[in-house]
Specification:
Layout: H1 4-14, H2 22-28, E1 33-37, E2 40-43, E3 48-51, H3 54-57, H4 66-78, H5 91-103, E4 108-114, H6 117-134, E5 142-146, H7 155-160, H8 164-167, E6 176-179, H9 184-187, H10 193-211, E7 216-221, H11 237-248, E8 251-255, H12 269-272, E9 279-282, E10 294-299, H13 300-309, H14 323-338, H15 341-356, E11 366-372, E12 375-380, H16 395-406, E13 409-410, E14 412-414, E15 417-420, H17 428-450
Parallel strand pairs: 3-13, 5-6, 5-7, 7-8, 8-9
Antiparallel strand pairs: 1-2, 2-3, 4-10, 9-10, 11-12, 12-15, 14-15
Helix pairs in contact: 4-14, 5-14, 10-11, 15-17, 16-17
Bound molecules: pyridoxal-5'-phosphate.
Amino acid sequence: MQNKTDLQYFEEQHHLPPFSDFKSLKKEGTRIITHADGHIIYDSDGNAILDAMAGLWCVNVGYGRDELVNAASQQMQKLPYYNNFFKTSNEPVARLSAKLASIAPDHLNHVIYANSGSEANDTIIRLVRHYWGLRGQPSRRVIIGREYGYHGSTIMAASMGGMRAMHEQSANEADFEHIRPPYSFLYQGNQTEIQFAESSARLLKEKIQEIGVDKVAAFVAEPIQGAGGVIIPPEGYFEHIQKICAEFGILFIADEVITGFGRTGNWFASQTMNLEPDLVTLAKGLTSGYMPMSAVLVSDEIASHLIDEGGEFFHGFTYSGHPVSAAVALANLELIEKEGLIEHVRDVTAPYLAKVIKQLDSHSLVGETRSFGLLACVELVKNKSGPVLFDPVGEVGMKCRDHAINSGLMVRAVRDGMILSPPLSFEKQDIDMTIEKLQQALDITYSELMK
Ligand SMILES: *Cc1c(COP(=O)(O)O)cnc(C)c1O
């Protein structure tokens, strides 16, 4: 066993981790997470940290669940790997496909597997273009997404997403357009919620008309924008959006990588929000992060064209439909059902979080709090009246996040918003602890700013 100094040295010398400023990371050093149990992660300095981010929005059932560990171990002994290319499949994948079809909205009964949300979205991009080719409209190639949308980090998925910093680093392919999201905190102004829902959705119509309807293939949205800062649409927004998609005959893709698997109090946000997407991206909570796996849910309509007219779809990965990942996913879904985690979110913790997060509203640093299911954001501002944002954006949020982590609470900062996405197994007392520690972090951050 290496001691911690060695591990941190190896990191510093040899590891370039995701989404990191390597220079400042090398200066500050890396936290080595050694183990985790329930809702607590532990680091090599002996700190215990309450994980209010469920890893990276994914550990829905919490850590240390033997059911998932055993499913992986048994499947590895029985069949650790076999491909799905040679007219072959495996037992867990066959069962998982049927299971996903049974919990998904009615018209989504077909599944394509991949290993990450990014790959699933790349798959969707190819699928959408293939579909329009089959329909005799190959000029329909443009996919419209939203600013602050996050769909992954491959070149295509990042181009489809709306993160400008990613576009600027060679992820800005042709045939992707973006509209402003319904981010009420920044953009609602004097509009009522009803007006704001309508005006935000109208941007899609205007964008389609600007591009030319014969060129537009699809609109893609996260029901709740996660990495963009837990942006919750106003009531009615998606109703307008779906009407516009129908009016122009374009496909609607729901990226449910974060909102899937119980986080909004149903299996999928599509059910919570009455969405009828043609394609759905799934990853993260599918396996609670215990194994990498993602999936695309495909509508009956699209599947019928693929099956009847498509010929071979030249796409897939070595690990598409990996039996161990599928076995873990099945065990994960069973556990979510057995423990009633979705009902627990819907009836107990989501309403509770919505109530107690309001305690932070009066804090001098807080411009807005909002939550939906087990997703929440606390927006920090320089001045509550206005509100006036910090300039530059992001520094204060990062400070507050670091104070939270140092006091034993793992949260994430997006711009100057503090983000929560806890495991679905969180109890009321875990939420209380989260709010208490967040309050402390806000207090420390505020007193620093006052100096
Ligand atoms: C995380 C995420 C992705 C990308 O998933 P990876 O597994 O990191 O490739 C895509 N869409 C959404 C909404 C996500 O949150």
